[in-house]
Amino acid sequence: MKHVSLADLGAGESGKVLRVSGGWGVQRRLQALGIRPGAMVTKVSAAFRPGAVVVTAGGGQAALGHGVARKVIVEVHP
Amino acid sequence: MKKILLMGNPNVGKSAVFARLTGARVLSSNYPGTTVEFAQGTLTLGSEKALLIDVPGAYDLEAASQAEEVAVSMLDEGDLVINVVDASNLERSLPLTLRLQERSVPMIVALNMWDDALHRGISIDVAKLEAALGVPVVPTVAISGEGIKGLASRIAEARVSQHDERSETERWSEIGRIVGEVQSLTHRHPTFLEALGDASVRPRTGIPIAVLLLVAAFVVVRFIGEGLISIALEPFFEQVWKPLMLSLSSFLGPGSFLHAIVIGKLVDGDIDFVQSFGLLTTGLFVPLGMVLPYILSFYIVLGFLEDLGYLPRLAVLLDTMMHRMGLHGWAIIPSLLGLGCNVPGILATRILETRRERFIAATTISIGVPCAALQAMIWGLLGRHGGGYVIIVYVTLFVVWALLGRLLNSVLEGRSPELIIEIPPYRLPSPRALTQKVWMRMAAFLKEAVPVVLAGVLLVNLLYFAGLFDSMARLTAPLMTRVLGLPEEAVVAMAVGILRKDVAVGMLGALDLTAAQLTVAVTVLAMLFPCIATFVVLWKQLGWADLGKSVLLMLASSLLVGFVLNLLVY
Q1: How does pLDDT run across B190-228, given as a tens digit for each residue?
Q2: ipTM
Q3: What are the backbone dihedrals phi and psi of residue B4, each rounded to the nearest 5 degrees, phi first?
Q4: In B119-230, which ranges are E strands?
């Protein structure tokens, strides 16, 4: 089991969101897109760094800028 | 009159439901944030009429963005809410539904995109969902109209399902409980569109796809535009309209005042639709014969990409590049809309979060993004001298757009916020919805642009008679000739550009410029000053102070670029 940010998660890997740091506004917008502690997320694409990442969460897809992706920590089971 | 609010997350099809219920034409696309201003219309419920308001999309009621603030403030005025929910993504839609429930407002739920959910192997037990929410639930497919009658007939049943305010944790556990109870998933392989959707955001496949799509878009726009001109419009103007105008010309008598206004001047005894500059000759030929075909083809292609859901994916790919301009990837959407017409492009900058971003985006659009009318004229006139010159104009404008963004980013305080957006699934555009959207945009062009073109042509003729142009040309002669290498009369075209850029290019066409001069002139014209319609929205969007800065940037950058380009092309 390892803890990584969404920015460092490999494409195709899944994990469970442990925590989301950052301001209240960012947390709330991420939550609306299904990215909140306890939710399962799968990374669809890893753009060339420092690019945006796309994840599947809560039945849909969301795109996050690199800076935001670093604030989302997920737990990955090997 | 009763006020009914149409509320839901961004991109769940509220505008499509609105259009179906009221019969009004509103713009909808497959990306969140298409509606930045609310639209309203009336619908008939039995014997009484009600006002239906299409509220901008919101994820919840905390009012974090401009659009959400509008949504919350309108909630107090509504008598009833139609909550539009995305059936293919119940979990993401329910937070708002529960919030609305806690507000104790009479509500009915439209379970939209029902067909999409079925395709994805998602089935929802409507009766159970009704029971769980305590309000009527009606499955709909707004884009095709399915279920809309059922929705309308049950609006009267909308009711309050009283519930105390829940805590955040309670809300999520409630959502989990409802989804688990009413929704069942059938496992299936990803469809072609889903695979293509994922491939479009992965850099290795996404960048080639983006290049391919943009090249294809360009080729298709040219193909349809040129096709319409050579098959329909040129034959019409040359073979039908010209003989009519020639007889009118001999009836009015060349040399008379009326002839000069209506027909314009004859070139070697013949009407030249670009150079004659009369109301019924150039005044009609420029907007209808040269610009309209390109507007049509551009909006067909843009509408297709919008409804497919490609634009958010392009935003992902370009995020890094746009950050260097102080924007994030999402800002590419207003810029693309600006390629059709700067007015909707600048209006769309409202989807950006900060004032700084909106200033950068609006300014770079009005300077570096040429509208379709201007582009059509550039192709029509400069294209005759060879495609190379046209490419010089495009490359110059693109470099200016990117450099100006970088400059503003480094000069202005603050930094760009991060991208957080929903990526909608690819959906095959419905031909009916696409046709309607193209038609709406065409109608707007005909209604708003054609009268201004005619007014511009009239004004040019009157001012010409008054002799005002000569003094204007003399006054700015050093600037035009020494800095830009253009004849002094070119300033008149630049001034007319304030009204409409297409008319202005038409005037340049009458000046007998060399290809190099024309290249410099159209580039400067594109950057110099926005047309009056763009100027007005720019002012509304930015306010006087920022508009002033924006205009100074336009003047400085266009003269500088014109000067440099003038040195380079010789």
Answers
A1: 789 999 999 999 999 999 999 999 999 999 999 999 999
A2: 0.95
A3: -110, 130
A4: 122-124, 137-139, 183-185
Q: Would you list which residues of chain B are within 8 Å, Cβ to Cβ, of chain A? A: 9, 59-60, 62, 64, 88-92, 95, 172, 197-198, 201-203, 206, 312, 315-317, 319-320, 323, 328-329, 418-425
Q: Which CATH superfamily, name and number, covers B2-185?
A: P-loop containing nucleotide triphosphate hydrolases (3.40.50.300)
CATH number at residue A37: 2.30.30.90
Tell me which chain B residue has its CA closest to the CA of residue A51.
B320
Residue boundaries of the structural domains of chain B: 2-185, 203-418+427-569
First to last CA, chain A: 6
Closest residue in B to A54 (Cα–Cα):
B201
Cβ atoms of residues B15 and B54 within 8 Å: yes
- Residue B189: left (phi > 0), alpha (psi -120 to 50), or beta? beta
Residue of B38, B29, B27 whose CA lies nearest to B11: B29
Alpha-carbon dihedral sign for residues B306, B307, B310, B311: positive
For chain A, the residues whose C-beta falls within 8 A of a C-beta of chain B are 11, 25-26, 28-34, 36, 44-48, 50-52, 54, 58-68
Nearest chain A residue to B122 by CA distance is A59
Phi, psi (rounded to 5 degrees) for B242: -65, -50
* Alpha carbons B372 and B297: distance in angstroms, whole number: 10
Three-state SS sequence of B173-205: HHHHHHHHHHEEECCCCCCHHHHHHHHHHCHHH
> How far is residue B424's CA from residue A61's CA, in Å, rounded to a whole number?
7
Residue B138 half-sphere exposure toward CB, CA atoms < 13 A: 25
Quick one: tokens of A39?
A: 């939710």
pLDDT in tens, B26-80: 766 766 666 666 778 888 887 888 999 988 888 878 766 666 777 788 888 889 9
Number of domains in chain A: 1
B450 backbone φψ class: left, alpha, beta (φ>0; ψ -120 to 50): alpha
Residues in Cβ contact with B180 at an 8 Å cutoff, skipping those fewer than 6 apart: none
C-alpha distances in Å from residue B329, one per residue of A52, A65, A69, B135, B316: 9, 9, 15, 39, 6
Domain that holds residue A22: 2-76
